[in-house]
Amino acid sequence: MTSYPGDGSGWRQLAWSGLLFSAPATWAPVAVGRRHLLLADEAGPVFEVKWWPGRRRLQPEKERQRLLAAWRRARRQAEPWPWPPAWRGQDRWQTAGFAWQDGTRAGWGGVILCHKTRTALLVQFLTPAGQPAPSTLAARLLASLSVGDRDRSLWSLYDIRAELPAGWILRQSRFDAGVFRLRLAAGRRHLFLWRWGLAAERLAAAGGLAAFAGQELGIPAAAWQGSDGVLAWQRPPRPWWQRLLDRRPVPAQARLWQLPAADRILAARLDGPDLPPAEFLSLCQGYGLV
């Protein structure tokens, strides 16, 4: 329900599973894992990052040697590379740099151990073979990179952004053409976030917003309440014995809203124990478009 404008600099903020950094707005994710992002521009992949919390005993130099050996077996030219002073990034980083190239691509990066958050990272900037490392751009990106923010759960990829209270952990994500879905968990509660493109076309095919909500969220169209492009649903009270029979979390609260100017539909559904209406509304208000 929130709109998050860009900063006007041609860069945008990305956040995923505890990782936060800024990158050129022309870079888009082409591969997304629980703790893996690969970004590309029109010419191809440009930046890759993987990260592993709780790896305080990792030794970057040894991990670099393992990577170099694997790349050499794959017939890549790979060697240690001095980490540039300008790529200092956040404080308390222990780094081991590397460089590699094959017939068409080249990469510069390193293995990083962040002592402050006890997180290990592998980062690399990718260019066509024969081009130099993108030093200025890399320095700016790494200066913005941080991991392990425990005060909030922030998720921002493509055109969506969700800022939630601390404790929500990503369990599943799926980014299909026109349809995004995230599933997060906090204790016994599961929060589903959706984003649909081509909203006008989808609503016309479904027969209206309530019918669309019934099809997509598994809640009958007649059960939704609201108007002006915003629908809400609350699970009716149930006896205690019925709650004991639940083998898995069942829907408790849901909200769906249309953004006509962006031709998008967003929705949130909470499964498991319900929340006070104001708290669930706050979760929904933290979810919006960039």
Helices and strands in order, then pairings?
Elements: E1 2-3, E2 11-16, E3 19-24, E4 28-33, E5 36-41, E6 44-53, H1 60-73, E7 77-80, E8 93-101, E9 105-114, E10 119-128, H2 135-144, E11 146-147, E12 152-157, E13 160-165, E14 169-176, E15 179-186, E16 189-196, H3 199-206, H4 209-217, E17 225-227, E18 230-234, H5 240-244, E19 251-259, E20 264-271, H6 277-285, E21 287-289
Quick rundown:
The chain has six helices and 21 strands. The chain is α+β, with helices and mostly antiparallel strands. Residues 1-8 have low confidence and may be disordered.
Q: Strand share of the residues?
A: over 45%
- Class of secondary structure makeup: alpha+beta
Q: Main sheet?
A: 7 strands, antiparallel
Strand line-up across the major sheet: 4-5-6-10-9-8-7
Order of helices and strands: EEEEEEHEEEEHEEEEEEHHEEHEEHE
Radius of gyration (Å): 22 Å
The total strand number stands at 21
- Provide mean pLDDT, rounded: 88
Shape: elongated
**What is the end-to-end distance?**
11 Å
Count every helix, treating DSSP H or I runs of 4 or more residues as helices: 6
What is the helix fraction of residues, given as a range?
Answer: 10-25%
Poorly predicted tracts of residues: 1-8
